[in-house]
Structure formats: C-alpha cells, structure tokens
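Quick illustration for those who missed Monday's session on complexes.
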Amino acid sequence: MLTVATTPEQAKQVISEWKAQGLTVGLVPTMGYLHEGHESLIKRAVAENDRVMVSVFVNPIQFAPGEDLETYPRDFEADKRLIEGAGATLVFHPEPADLYFPDACTYVNVEGITAELCGKTRPTHFRGVCTVVNKLMNISQADRAYFGQKDAQQLAVIRRMVRDLNMNVQVVGCPIVREEDGLAKSSRNTYLSAEERTAALVLSRAVAEGQRLMEAGERSAATVLGAMKQLIEAEPLARIDYVEMVSWDDIKPVETVDGPVLVAMAVYIGKTRLIDNFIFGE
Ligand code: AMP
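Prediction with adenosine monophosphate bound:
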C-alpha cells in the first residue's frame, strides 16, 4: 500500500515509525512525470533498503524566470501507479507552500563545482537543487539517496554537498536509461514534436561518437568535442548550449584526458533544452 504525504510532518511521522523499528530508508527525489529512468532508481532503492520514500515535487527555486516551471509536465495519478509498481511505500508530494516557509532565508550553496556546464547557463539552479535535496534528506532521514547519471553534474554536486556537510547519507549514482533508439529518457521529451523527436537523436549520436573516439585512444578534448559539435551542428533543429569535457571528480575543464572525465552537453531542440553525457575512465 502506498502512503501519500503532502506535508513534511506527515512524511516524518511515517519515517519515524520506520526508524523506530530499525528499518533502513532509501530516498529517490524526482520532479514527477515518471518514466523508466526514475523507475530504475526506485527499483534499486527498493532492492537496497527496507523502505523507500519517493518525492514528487517540481521545485520552484531551481527554475529561473523564463524557464519551464509552469509548463513542466505533471501526472500524479500515473506517478503513483509507477511508484507503487516499483515497490516504494511512501510518496512525498508537497505543494511549494508545504515545503518552504514564506520567510525562509536558508539556502545550500555549493561553490566551484557548480561553475561549469549547467551552472554557467543556469546560475541559480544548483542552489535550488541542493537546498531542496538537503530538506528531503532531513525529512526522510535517508540512509541512501539515489540520483541518475543523466544529471551528472547534479550527482557530482550532491556528492560534494554530502561530503562537505558530513551528512549521514550514502549517495548512489545510477546509469542513464535510454529509449530504444538511444535518446536519454526525460520528462521533457514530451515537449518534442515528431520532427524534433527525430532531431533529438543528435545528442545520443554525439555521445556515441565521443565515446567511440575515446575508446579508440583519443585524449585531446578539443578533438573529441570538435567531432561531437560538428555532428550536432549538422542538425538544423539543434542549437548547442554547451558541449564540454570536465574532470569527473571536481567538474573543471580538461584539455588532455589523464583521469576520469565527464563529457556533457546541453542542446536546444527547438525550444526544448535536452542534456546527455558520458563518463570515461571511471
Ligand atoms: P527529475 O525528475 O528529472 O528531476 O529526475 C529525478 C531523478 O531521476 C534524477 O536523479 C535524475 O538524474 C534521474 N533520471 C532522470 N532521467 C533519467 C534517465 N533517463 N536515466 C536515469 N536516471 C534518470
């Protein structure tokens, strides 16, 4: 049976009963409109913990003005079915006013590692993400929290926050789940027209090309990124936000590969901004 909590107090009540029984808790933070990518995180959390809380919350403070906060897709009934089917027992689904005090003035700001990639074009994004994830970790008292490599910089930033603040939670990174044709699953894929959906394949094709070059021994970032950009630029509906190579542990630009690297991109397909990436040498 799936319990729905809409306030932190309701969620804490359920969690405190679990903790009193000595049960372990897994947390899967999401913005809802769930797909098989989210499902893979939930199933892993269910396999590794006694109980799992999934949060479904479109977090306003991680969106900048002009981004898609209002239009972000929502379908809580379908989300509940997927969550229950995957074996989680608690879903936390607050309204913004349930989670944020009107006079809240505390934010979690992870510096440095947020300067590149998405942090460049979305300068307030990670502050919003870290603040809400910190709140969700506190509410759930999670032993483990699950994040997708789809949002690779987010995963690195959360790991750093947990380390720097000595938080008692283990961060678990999970592989990217893709459509059969390669497109990384994303709630935002629903924005794409049929023509854009085809054009969006340039992202995973660029990932495959970058991976192929690096597996063949290429170590120059400029060469790898040049080939990837060329492929993307050949698609008329695509506009590059960034295609970059950074060190995987601290997200700093890399010129020549000599350790684990993240090769990440954000590309507009029409008005929709999509991301994809691969990690090499981990
Ligand atoms: P979101 O609902 O987009 O905020 O994503 C919630 C969590 O699911 C994040 O940790 C994402 O990285 C993860 N996620 C989203 N899409 C995928 C995917 N295609 N494969 C694996 N994890 C994903």
